[in-house]
């Protein structure tokens, strides 16, 4: 694979067992706070059909199961879906967020922990939002939890090094044009593996435009998992939207 191909397909290479190991330190309190924010602002019953798009190992989907019996998780990675299946009973489907393998069926779609902006073509990122719109029922809710570009630019840590289970993990972060990239190197017993994360740095106005173009009406914009209003240096950029009827 060419260097450009490696970069553009980073998500196919990265989201496996190594990803789970590197992110094992994630704060579960953050996940719980985010789910509380969701259920506080969205009417969810045991019958509500929810799609967690790019669900990963099911960290958020498993918490949503406390509120609904119909939580579906979708991810491209078989490794992450396998881990999600081990974590709790979910309806799991392998698929690409650009072409969801569903007909219109959901009352709620969530995209959490910056599971958006993966693609180098803005048109493909817009296509993702259009797919979420397509699979939502009339009046359905789309909840997007994304990074705040200005916060990332100000607080970006250039390099961190840590050891996990005898493996040296080196993470190098940088801003490249309109994207934030993180190179991950995993070293163990003389063997070295390299991975990449790359996410488009959409700002508030760019994301508003994309959501509108995809057919969503924005109801609220939060700046953190406690539900505070969004400000320039909020740590997150979180949208609560509803599906607009197509003209």
TrEMBL record:
Keyword terms of this UniProt record: Methyltransferase, Transferase
The transmembrane segments are: none
Pfam families (UniProt xref): Methyltransf_25
A biological-process GO annotation: methylation
Q: What top-level branch of life does the organism fall under?
A: Bacteria
Q: What sequence ranges are listed for the domain Methyltransferase?
A: 50-140
Q: Name one GO molecular function term.
A: methyltransferase activity
Does Methyltransferase appear among the keywords? yes
Designated name of the protein: Methyltransferase domain-containing protein
Organism the protein comes from:
Caldithrix abyssi DSM 13497
Taxonomic path: Bacteria, Pseudomonadati, Calditrichota, Calditrichia, Calditrichales
């Amino acid at each position: 694979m060419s260097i450009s191909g490696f970069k553009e397909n980073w998500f196919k290479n990265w989201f496996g067992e190594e990803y789970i190991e590197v992110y094992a330190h994630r704060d579960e309190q953050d996940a719980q706070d985010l789910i509380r924010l969701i259920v506080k602002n969205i009417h969810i019953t045991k019958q509500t059909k929810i799609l967690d798009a790019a669900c990963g190992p099911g960290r958020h989907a498993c918490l949503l199961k406390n509120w609904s019996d119909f939580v579906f998780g979708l991810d491209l990675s078989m490794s992450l879906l396998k881990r999600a299946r081990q974590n709790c009973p979910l309806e799991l489907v392998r698929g690409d967020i650009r072409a969801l393998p569903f007909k219109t069926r959901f009352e709620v779609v969530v995209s959490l922990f910056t599971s958006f902006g993966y693609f180098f073509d803005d048109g493909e990122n817009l296509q993702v939002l259009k797919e979420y719109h397509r699979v939502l029922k009339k009046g359905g809710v789309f909840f997007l939890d994304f990074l705040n570009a200005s916060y990332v630019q100000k607080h970006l840590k250039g390099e961190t090094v840590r050891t996990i289970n005898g493996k040296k993990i080196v993470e190098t972060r940088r801003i490249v044009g309109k994207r934030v990239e993180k190179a991950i190197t995993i070293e163990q017993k003389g063997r070295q593996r390299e991975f990449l994360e790359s996410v488009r740095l959409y700002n508030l106005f760019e994301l508003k435009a994309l959501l509108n173009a995809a057919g969503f009406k924005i109801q609220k914009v939060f700046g953190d998992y406690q539900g505070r209003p969004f400000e320039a240096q909020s740590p997150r950029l979180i949208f609560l939207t509803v599906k607009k009827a197509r003209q």
